[in-house]
Amino acid sequence: MSGGQRGRSGQGGQSTESTTSTMSTVILHHLGIRQLPVSNSSLSVPVVPGYHTAASGGYRMDPSRYRILIRGGGELASATAHHLFREGFTRILILERRFPKAVRRSVCFSEAILDGRATVDGVTVVQVRTLEGVEEAHRQGTIGIMAANLEKVIEQWRPDVFIEATMLRQNWGLQRSMAPVVIALGPGYTAGKDCHAVVDTVRGPSVGSVLEDTGENLESRPPADIMGFTDERSLKAVRDGIFFTQLKIGDKVERGERVGTVVSVFGIEDYRRGVPIDASYTVTARISGVIRGLLRDGVPVKKGDRIGDVDPRGFTDDLDHLSDKSRRVAEGVHEALVDMAHLLSPAT
After folding, report:
1. Which of 13, 87, 226, 328 is deepest in the core (most CB within 10 A)?
2. Own/partner long-range contacts of 189-195 (Cβ < 8 Å, ≥24 apart)
3. Taking the model in full, what pTM does it have?
4. Does residue 348 lie within any of the structural domains?
5. Does residue 316 form part of some domain?
6. Contact 243, 237 (CB under 8 A)
7. Burial tier of 324 (Cβ tally within 10 Å: 0-12, 13-18, 19+)
8. CATH code of the domain covering residue 261
């Protein structure tokens, strides 16, 4: 990454909640925010006496006032929503597809689309079907999630902050005009052109770093090396169909072992052309390890979709918690948001 990179860089092997807490404390101190502990809870309530910038001249910033719209409900999007919610940005709406494609489902808010509710590390998301339902979810102290048209939601809900977190690795039409503050995760977007800031998502010393208004973008890079494995850790669909499996996250697999089956779905025209309507193929593990992520049984997939993820280290003790990497990315989003607070209307 070039000289336009700004802000903190995560340390590849460093952990955990202490890193998150330290980063949050630094940001809050920079803002002049003190934290009041909530009785019987680890959650702290940010008390914001005032935030001043050269661009704004000074105004009061109340995190709970701003509407945050996050596109995507996978792990990085969920970590971002979780972190911002804990930092006082309680008016959050997540947009997801009708059949979520997140594989680390135990730490993804996207599960609420199919289950109605999901809780990750103490923060709860509930499915809503209308924008009125979003406000009710917020009154109940939860985050809302829905499968809805993006353009209509932006037009009717009018978010103050839009966070692109689907990790498509290419610009599908993201524009800075979609909200007063627009932040994108990962490669495929140009800071200052497509959005106000881009946050690095690749595990390593730069994860969580922020590019702001630099005219630069992140290069697409292969997955981080774990015990000598990169792309081999991923299980992907080789053609369209419906994925079926009897395994679950946390199960151990050996190289070459069957993980599931994708059954292709064909129309009448395909049948007339002689395509076998029961065509299917087996999805097998390319390495030995523990299934860290896996799609639900019965989910439709497209060619190239990630179906699962195998961790060669064999760890199973952190499958139900947000990873250090995702937490650092979330901190980067928070850092970018704080630095661009002058673009938001002052709280009344």
Report:
1. 328
2. 189/164, 189/217, 189/218, 190/215, 190/216, 190/217, 191/4, 191/215, 191/216, 191/217, 192/216, 195/164
3. 0.78
4. no
5. no
6. yes
7. buried
8. 2.40.50.100
For 54-88, write each residue's pLDDT tens digit.
333 444 568 999 999 999 999 999 999 999 999 99
Structure token pair of residue 241: 């169909």
Question: Which structural domain, as residue segments, surrounds residue 258?
Answer: 231-311
Kindly write down the DSSP assignment for every residue of 111-135, as one continuous string.
GHHHHSEEEETTEEEEE-SSHHHHH
Nearest Cα to 197, choosing from 186, 280, 207?
186
In angstroms, the CA 145 to CA 129 distance is: 8
206: closest CA among 218, 197, 195, 190? Answer: 218
Could you tell me the two tokens for 139?
Answer: 């009154």
How much is the average pLDDT of 173-182? 92
- Report d(CA 221, CA 224) in Å as an integer: 9
CA distances from 330 to 120, 174, 186, 315, 335 (A): 14, 20, 12, 23, 9
